[in-house]
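Below is how a single chain appears once it has passed through the pipeline. First comes the sequence as given, then the structure the pipeline wrote out for it. We keep one example in the README because the format questions we get most often are answered faster by looking than by reading.
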Amino acid sequence: RRAGTGGGVASPEVRRSSSAAAKMADGEEVTLDGRPLHLLRVADLKAALERRGLAKSGQKSALVKRLRGV
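Resulting structure:
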């Protein structure tokens, strides 16, 4: 998480390894708060998308792809 200056709660980050594009092709998962995106609830995925200003409609697979930046 990033340290905030306003004293609010820091939003979770989507994390990727250093060679994310290559590893994602090999099946390594992108994580949110240390958890693979496909294991999160739809409500959690939508909250993460909303914090990023992205569309939050669609099926779970579409939400995961959107968070991955695919």
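The chain has one domain: 14-68.

See the next section for the split statistics.
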